[in-house]
Amino acid sequence: MPLVAAGRIRDSHSVTFTAAQKSMPRGRIHWAWVVAAVSFIAILGAAGFRSVPGVMMNPLHHEFGWSHGVVGLAMSVNMTLFGLTAPFAAALMDRLGVRPVLTAALLLIATGSALSVTMTASWQLVLLWGVLVGVGTGSISMGFVATVATRWFEARRGLVTGVLTAASATGQLIFLPIVAEVTTRHGWRWASLIVAAAALSVVPLVLLFMRNYPQDKGLTPYGATAAAEPAVVPASSFAAAFDGLRFGARVPAFWLLAASFAICGMTTNGLIGTHFIPAANDHGMPTTVAAGLLATIGILDVAGTVFSGWLTDRVDPRLLLVVYYAGRGISLLLLPTLLAPHAEPSTWVFVIFYGLDWVATVPPTIVFATTSVRDLPSYSAGCSHRTSWAQRSPPPGQAGYGMCRATTTWRST
Hints:
Elements (H helix, E strand, L loop, with lengths): L6 E2 L5 E2 L3 H5 L7 H16 L5 H13 L3 H29 L1 H18 L6 H17 L3 H11 L4 H30 L1 H14 L1 H7 L27 H13 L2 H31 L4 H26 L4 H18 L10 H13 L4 H11 L6 E10 L14 E10 L1
Antiparallel strand pairs: 1-2, 3-4
Helix pairs in contact: 2-7, 2-8, 2-9, 2-10, 3-4, 3-8, 3-9, 3-12, 4-5, 4-6, 4-7, 4-11, 5-6, 5-9, 7-8, 8-9, 8-13, 8-16, 12-13, 12-16, 13-15, 13-16, 14-15, 14-16
């Protein structure tokens, strides 16, 4: 039975286009890849802020006298709101569409970063870096990645998830050396304006190319063999988000995933992303060198996360998660003995391994979350995390203080 209306070709014979043909237009790139590319650039632009706290912690301390704990407090608020925002941003995407939510998020990030050049009090730092940027980045989190991957892709979903997850690390790769160099030569204000401009520059691409569903372009998801049913948006998207969280709380896998993602966030952005550069400075390493090491982690994370997405399509995600977290724990145990004024060979071993493992946990976690609720109706899962080990900079050899927050977005479909 035809799934769509028949079309006409040169000899006027009626030809039926199947769902499979619509999902792979001949001679054209499927629009799913356009959406994925724009999503990658949007996450990359938003990720510019991830390079800011570690580089600017000492300059802010020297100019305003703010302790590392003050900057850490702003980042704690940022990371907490990142996690809390994710489920409700997904609900807004269901209700209002991906394009307006993504545009608003990028504008929040640009505003928070740009206005920070005028701040004179610590509460302004918490408001701009913590609240505005936290809500903005939380709206472009793994909930957004899961939304794009599940709506637009039937095939290659794990690979796409890995690539989009790696976009954040790619942003770190691009912005860290720039932010470090500009901050060292011209001051932290110019670096903040560069980050704001990067987020703002992505908005036109989102407005031009982002679409909510394949049906908006008359297509089925990439790799689909049957026409997808139109998505049913709940009467109250926020109520659906709360209902989804209550539903997830009754599933044991929810708590396992939330705990594992809390550890993932704590050991990446919470610890290394925020405090590695100040800790390296304490050991005599220049900021530009430490930023270069973090950028190298970003380079390797792109390869590691994409490869993890490829593996997730082929290997039990539970096995991958065991290997990833065990390796990460061992490497962190060794880190206090590796910091030095120069990048020693042992430091490079840590950088290489940690880079490959940075957020390689994300693709198997999302797939595991999805399969864990496969037999329960009306829900699909996407996970987001951000953890703050950022209340103050930990002295060498001591654990830092802070809080962690992990939320799993159970998006109604």
